[in-house]
Amino acid sequence: MVNPYKDLDKDKKAQVALMFNNIARKYDFLNHFLSMGIDKLWRKKAVNLLKPLQPKIVLDIATGTGDFALANLKLNPDKVIGIDISTEMLAVGREKIAKKNLQDKIELFEGDSENIQFETNSFDAITVAFGVRNFENLEKGLKEMNRVVRPGGKVVVLEFSKPRKFPVKQFYNFYFFRILPLWGRMVSKDASAYTYLPESVNAFPDGEDFLKIYEECGFTDTKQIKLSFGIASIYMGTKSKQ
Fold this sequence. Notes:
Blueprint: H1 12-34, H2 38-48, E1 57-61, H3 67-71, E2 79-84, H4 87-99, E3 106-110, E4 123-129, H5 138-148, E5 149-160, H6 168-188, H7 193-203, H8 208-216, E6 219-227, E7 232-239
Helix pairs in contact: 1-4, 1-6, 6-7
């Protein structure tokens, strides 16, 4: 298991919460700057995949500063609920939502993705962007998603993946392991956060490995959609109606 802080005697969940609390005020800038804004296009594509479902109640897990929750408004839902373990990230997200006067549409709560506080079959759809690789127990988190989404509901996971083909693989590895940690450390002032990012992506079971785990956790009709030459992927899954 990859943890953000190698010398800290805390479990992964506590370390992830601490890391995001530390970088919360710089997170949006770094996220968009280091991805060159491509992350916004990835979220848009992920949201568009849910349009045929016309979900009315959407849960955004590991919502952070609320970017995916805000993007979900394109689905014209009645309500979007976001949960995250980082209080500081949620504070930034609530400020953004308040500035847009969208408090009636989006609510953010502190919550653990591996012990979701909502009842079974509560949501029409669930979204997660760049969050599942931070789970302490991936299978437990996915099973919780399966529990709280309604039968026939869909889960969309957006996550970094590892490109396999030349020259994208070589460029990706150079950028992710050399450039990104340097810039991240300079701007966020947290030396570990942007070293943890490439390490956690490298350790994450992407592609077919993730789809297998997805299915073992109760999802059907699973598929992977590769983005930007395999730098990221969207994973779709449906909760069985039976």
